[in-house]
Design goal:
Layout: E1 3-8, H1 33-42, E2 46-52, H2 63-79, E3 86-90, H3 113-121, E4 124-133, H4 136-145, E5 148-152, H5 157-162, E6 173-175, H6 178-186
Parallel strand pairs: 1-2, 1-4, 2-3, 4-5, 5-6
Bound molecules: magnesium ion and zinc ion.
Magnesium ion binds near residues 12 and 135.
């Protein structure tokens, strides 16, 4: 049976924004995140993380570090009873110095490449899709895939909220954080 899905941004939404995350010790998950993910789990809603990690292509940090951070993140959350169904990351950046990843790919948000992968890997109810993130990139992704778009006021979100009036693509809703976003989503599915 197809399931609703929440596509969740990583930096500034799940963990504290630390600019380019160049050390695993800089990775700190917000306190409210395990509860938010658990609520999705018990309501049979897919929790899928989509994250741009263009710093790999730009040579700011290694892919190995990103993989280690993701392993730690998924382990920390699962120890607290919160299951991320899948995580997809884009390592690319146009004109990045990396020999393989310095390209204009089709997966860097707001492009829909990671969403298309998820669509193949899971049985998704495309009428019940949500995107939650702290940047307009996430909101634009939501627009591109036809999802309900929630901007959160963590990470870059408060600054982005000030710019909403200037933007043609606007969030459907602005919430204080991922937990508040999930509570709102639960009323809609
Ligand atoms: Mg972000
Ligand atoms: Zn990419």
């Amino acid at each position: 049976m197809s399931r609703p899905v929440v596509f969740i941004d990583r930096d500034g939404t799940i963990n504290e924004e630390a600019g380019y995350m160049n050390h695993i010790d800089s990775f700190k998950i917000f306190d409210f995140v395990p509860q938010a993910i658990r609520l999705l789990n018990i309501n049979n809603i897919l929790a899928i993380v989509l994250t741009n990690q263009g710093g790999i292509a730009r040579g700011y940090f290694s892919e190995e570090l990103v993989l280690n951070i993701h392993k730690k993140m998924l382990e920390d959350l699962s120890q607290r009873g919160a299951l991320i169904d899948r995580l997809y990351y884009c390592p690319h950046y146009p004109k990045g110095s990396h020999p393989l990843y310095g390209i204009d790919c089709d997966c860097r948000k707001p492009k829909d490449g990671m969403f298309k992968k998820a669509l193949k890997d899971f049985d998704i109810d495309i009428k019940k899709m949500f995107v939650v993130g702290d940047k307009f990139t996430d909101i634009e992704l939501g627009e591109n895939i036809g999802a309900y778009k929630i901007l959160v006021r963590t990470g870059y979100g408060k600054g982005e909220e000030l710019e909403i009036g200037k933007r043609s693509i606007k969030p459907d809703e602005v919430c204080d954080n991922l937990l508040m976003a999930v509570l709102s989503i639960l009323k809609k599915v």
